[in-house]
Amino acid sequence: MNCSSFQKEYEGGSDLSAGGAAHLRNCDECQRFVREEEALTGLLSKLPGIQAPGDFQAGVRSRIASGRGALSPVWGMARILLPSAAMLLIAGLVVVNSGLLDSPEANIEPVAEVKDNISIPDKNLETDIDQERSPIIESNSKEPVPALESKAADYGKKVEQDLRTRQDERLRPARKDDSGGVQSLDQASEAAVVTNPPGLNPERVIKPTQRVPEKPFTAKEILGALGVDAEWKAGKLVVKSVAASSIGDMSGIIAGDQIRSIDGRKVSAGTMSKGRVNGQIIKVRREGKEITINIRSN
Amino acid sequence: MDTCLALDKFGFPDTEVYHAVVSFTELSDHELIAATREGEEEAFGVLVGRYRNPLTNYLYRMLNDYEEAVDLAQESFVRVYFAIDRYHDKYAFSTYIYRIATNLAISEIRKRKRRKLYSLTGLFQFDGNEDKEFQPQDEKALPEDDTITAELREVIEKAILALPEKYRVPIILREIQELTYEEVADVMGLGLGTTKSRISRGRGLLKEKLGQYLDVE
């Protein structure tokens, strides 16, 4: 048996074969291997067992109870529909408040009821037109009509001009601009780009904001913020002094206290998790007793 | 014992409750699952009591975060409870719950990697980057015995956490939770040979990292 076979057999966990045992007796390298393996096993066995907290069972029950509620078909349906309804409501409010309904597109209307089959009126239209042949004049006009025939003549001219303009392009919906004129959608969109506020300018490059990583603090720094000056002595964080009238002083921390944990996190020379450690509950050892101190902010 | 506290409306020990609970503690895992299916909530409670500490320990060794370990251990039991009708007694219950816990732990580890979340404990900083070079601390005389233990514990924990997932899971299951090779293979859904190979490789990596603490001379 060679060393590789022996080590494989040894790692298998079962008792050594006669060949394996014989190899081990005569092989220094494998004897060292076995000693290392045993030392590693011994080292790993030194890790303490971590216990579940006393309220573990209650936590499981609570989660199961809340999970049961979620399993109810009515609640399950409501859980889907309620957020959807809320989203629709919010979207509706955003649309109304943003004035999208007042956008140029919303004012689009067919150009004076011009149809595809309309023909260019004759030159003598303005003389032939009468009230019966142009009912639209009256319906589209918001102003009083002092002289119907005169309006009809103006309308005829306008229609003729419009239709001639459109002979070179597709007949498309148009909108009335602020001055009462008519623009195509292309013109309107160009105008919109030009008149966009800077925040809405599509050509403007918006650089992504870069988050500054949060810096974790050491236990000493956290205590320092409370007015407590502590120093490491033989692996223990001991309070050297407490500033008078500081938060630490008002909370009852005194010189000589050994800081054991901050917000449930055992103190160490390294940094402590910011966000999880706010310095609200500090456990200290004082005269051989564990004392929990609730930090008073006022 | 909790069961002795079950009292009837007159304040006397309720023998019916007493016997019921005592009998639950004597049931096997599969029998407890069957009783839970039939609506015996206490049976599930006994099951939780049986595995809460091993599971919390396992998850703590995987994540090095006590709160997260407790949270995921509780979540594991909740998942078992709601999938209890689908539970099959083909495997040991321990294998089943360890597998759920392993999946949750790996999911959490990957989530942390994505978020580059820093997980800190009172002893040291673990950034979830398993490829990070491990630097054992200088061996030096320390003033007190309990500090030596804490120091050594830190080094061992750090070495385990530095292992890649595929080695960390079987190493913790085998070396700390003391599962058999077959059970580890079942939890990981791997063949026995692959499992043994990973444990062997994991132990090799640990020996490299902890070499100076292995006194073999």
Can you describe this structure?
The complex is a heterodimer of chains A (298) and B (217). With 298 residues, chain A is an alpha+beta fold. Helix content of chain A is 44%, strand content 13%. In chain A, strands 4, 5, 6, 7, 9 and 10 form a six-stranded antiparallel β-sheet that branches. Chain A has a two-stranded antiparallel sheet with strand order 1-2. A two-stranded antiparallel ribbon of chain A has the order 3-8. In chain A, a hairpin with a 2-residue loop joins β9 and β10. The radius of gyration of chain A is 43 Å and the shape is extended. Residues 69-73, 103-143, 170-183 and 191-198 of chain A have low confidence and may be disordered. A two-stranded antiparallel sheet of chain B has the order 1-2. Chain B has helices at residues 15-25, 29-37, 41-63, 66-82, 93-115, 145-161, 165-176, 181-188, 192-210, and strands at residues 119-120, 125-126. The relative contact order of chain B is 0.09. With 217 residues, chain B is mainly alpha-helical. At the A-B interface, α3, α4, β7 and β8 of A face α3, α4, β1, α6 and α9 of B.
